[in-house]
């Protein structure tokens, strides 16, 4: 199904670019934000996006708050996809949903959980959307011929989107291809949880190599991923980070006086569990009765049972508010009313190149940030070091405790204006960078 924003879209003289993506509204979560907003802004820079997405995708999280009107130039194409999770969800509904959302049980996973992860890791390579590759190649090959498409962009994960683009450039000798990696491929953290056989691991490496070698430009969202890929290919690589959109409610909200709320936005998976944080807070609650009387620990998003158990072990459950998944707009409002925002990443080498998209919205909110993650985390390159922010590892309990105490003593102090340096992370400015890459792209 093709949707044109008006009847003149096909006559637009701007350069057309085909974007191959899996996540698209009403998908929720961070995966949809990057390219939804790139697509919104590209027409401002003389580029008409033709967006190819699944028609009936089974998204683990749904969010209907992405209501900004797309420009008239945007052409949206939807084609059916066969989702494996649909086939088994009626048998194992809860486990299937947990796996698709990334809530993997770390402590003694059941036989069913191990089996499902083994099937996912060894029978669906590179991912569970691989069956969409062949029909998409057949459809898009004809579409490219009929509409004079000269440039395609694939964005993953799921990395099957890159396989579609890889097949298209084999048969269209003048087609240029940009492969956008929101996360790495063979070094992505959850691969270790999928019980892959050596054969499956080699197949992933082979497919990754084919994509890295065949693309004419590679985009990454972090500097570590760029460095990693640079060792595997001579293809040009550029970093375009995630970013933020201006928020219309920003001037209407501020933290409540005589309270102290620590707020985490997003999923807290089993491995994203800094026990030193809960220990430090537990000590502050015991040592400082004023702190205990004003403190709350608020979670917006999915929280695994293991994390909840760790929080309970330090006597903090009564201070917690678990909101679950809420719309993106409502989540942003929570950021502006927080006294201290928590940014937490898994403590592993594989995750030091992850710069969560929410960090840019955190920065825009001008609220203090406590970031806890792996050693040499790329977040250090975007998070200003000052009295409002702290960046520590899973071993830095004293830093974490002293910073929380410091922010509590400071109170609801808010920066008078947004740091001008953050403007480079506005999505319209990032899209301008992208447009220059598209216009200057060469096939050789």
SSE layout and pairing:
Blueprint: E1 2-4, E2 15-20, H1 33-41, E3 47-54, E4 75-79, H2 84-89, H3 93-101, H4 111-123, H5 133-147, E5 151-156, H6 160-171, E6 176-181, H7 198-214, E7 217-220, H8 223-230, E8 237-239, E9 260-265, H9 275-287, H10 289-294, E10 295-300, H11 305-313, E11 320-324, H12 328-336, E12 340-344, H13 358-364, E13 369-372, E14 389-392, H14 397-410, H15 427-440
Parallel strand pairs: 2-3, 2-5, 3-4, 5-6, 6-7, 7-8, 9-10, 9-12, 10-11, 12-13, 13-14
Antiparallel strand pairs: 1-4
What do you see in this structure?
By secondary structure, the protein is α/β, with parallel strands linked by helices. The chain has two domains: about 1-85 and about 125-245 and about 425-440, Glycogen Phosphorylase B (Rossmann fold, 3-Layer(aba) Sandwich), CATH 3.40.50; about 250-420, 3-Layer(aba) Sandwich (Rossmann fold). The protein is about 35% helix and about 15% strand. β6 (about 175-180), α7 (about 200-215) and β7 form a beta-alpha-beta unit. The longest helix has 17 residues, at about 200-215.
Number of strands: 14
CATH level 4 superfamily of the largest domain: Glycogen Phosphorylase B
CATH class of the largest domain: Alpha Beta
Strand content: 15-25%
How would you write the strand order of the largest sheet? Answer: 1-4-3-2-5-6-7-8
Summarize the structure.
The chain has 444 residues and is of the alpha/beta class.
Question: Can you tag this structure with a few keywords?
Answer:
444 residues; alpha/beta; Rossmann fold; 2 domains; eight-stranded mixed beta sheet; six-stranded parallel beta sheet; 15 helices; globular
